[in-house]
Amino acid sequence: MCVGGTTMLDPLVAEWLNILGRWIHVIAGVMWVGNSMLFNWLDRSLIPPDDKTSRTIGKTWLLHGGGFYHVEKYTSDQVPPVLHWFKWQSYTTWVTGFILLVAVYYADGGSFLIPAGSEWPARSALWLGLGMVFGGFALYDLTWRTSFAKKHDTIAGALSVIVLFVIVYAIHQVFTGRSAYLHVGAMLGTCMAGNVFLHITPSQKKLINQITEGGGYNKEMSTRAKARSIHNNYMTFPMIFTMISNHFAGLFGHELNWLILIIVMVTGALVRHFMNIRWTFTHWPAGIGGTLGFAGVALAAILHPGPQPQAAAGGEDLGEPVSFAEARNIINQNCLACHSAWPTDKVLSLATGGVHYDTPQEIQKYAERIYVRAVETKTMPFANMKEMSDEDRATLGRWIKQGARLE
């Protein structure tokens, strides 16, 4: 298939590659996050030995699969004969995630990154996205390599969070809400995978090499690996939210989408914090409950529902009556390329979930959904690729509010 001199994959092949890539991405991500949470839980659940001179750091018993597991963590001057590494899940998650990022947002030159009519050229937006993903990690990594960050980790952590918030706000001024959310997640995922690749795994390798060469156990190597592992621990919940955020148009499509994302990220990190300290902080359930409650109130204040798409009540002025012919013409021009049994856009139509607007009855059936996506949140058409005007959105909204009548 050739479009404008550029060879493109067959839409069906591209869709199956998308499915396979997402499947592997999710499976690897579940394994990575699951292992991370398990080992963090183990570190806090280990029972220390009575003998303070023992090399045993701690041990615990687990019940799973109809049997008991005896887990013990200790230091040693000998490398165990069989050693299992936990790194490939992170690499697989990042690689498949980056491939999906390229396939969805970069393969067409970056046009899906920015709103229609943006002053930014699509190619420049593409480089901005890549600069954010890799530049954000470079800034984070270089900061935490400094002696200042190592001595004053609380201050460095606060500064890192402030810079993250600035980046979140700035990228939303250029990108669409959907692509901005995904790029924030890609940046966090790159920081996490980078920690594994550049710090956690190399420190563990140095620890093993030093033991093999007769130098004994070096606690410094262990501490270095653990520090970046804790960073990953706090980034996990915010990163997972961005992975699934494309399903929530009411959030990424809101005019304060950047603030919503910040609130959700802070909430996720704080919940993770209370989970981490629950062995030493007895009121951790109240901490989690308070965090979720505050976030719920804040989000409710931001996302308070606007006028619902209901038929006019007696005496309510909804402007000039809008005929079905007018509404259908707007839908045909802006929606039917994808939302049809006979779409002209063969790629995006594969992700419409079978929502079609070919008949008057289908349009009426999905009227409220059309209102939310095209009028209220303005997240459809996708990336406003049809450059749907605010006037057309308002007209369509009036038709729905007036009862979505087929006359």
Q: Which SSEs are present, and which pair or pack?
A:
Layout: E1 2-3, E2 6-7, H1 11-45, E3 56-64, E4 67-74, H2 88-106, H3 122-145, H4 147-151, H5 153-172, H6 177-212, H7 219-244, H8 249-252, H9 257-276, H10 284-302, H11 324-334, H12 360-365, H13 367-376, H14 390-401
Antiparallel strand pairs: 1-2, 3-4
Helix pairs in contact: 1-2, 1-7, 2-6, 3-5, 3-6, 5-6, 5-9, 6-7, 7-9, 9-10, 11-14, 13-14
Task: Please report which band the strand proportion falls in: under 5%, 5-15%, 15-25%, 25-35%, 35-45% or over 45%.
Answer: 5-15%
Q: Which spans of ≥5 residues are poorly predicted at pLDDT below 50?
A: 1-7
Structural class: mainly alpha
Number of helices: 14
Helix content: 55-70%
Mean pLDDT: 85
Give the termini distance in whole angstroms.
41 Å
What is the CA-atom radius of gyration, in angstroms?
A: 26 Å
Question: What oligomerization state is this entry in?
Answer: single chain
How many strands, which pairing sense, and closed or not: the largest β-sheet? Answer: 2 strands, antiparallel
Q: What is the H/E order? A: EEHEEHHHHHHHHHHHHH
Overall body shape: elongated
Name the strands of the widest sheet in spatial order.
1-2
> How many β-strand runs?
4
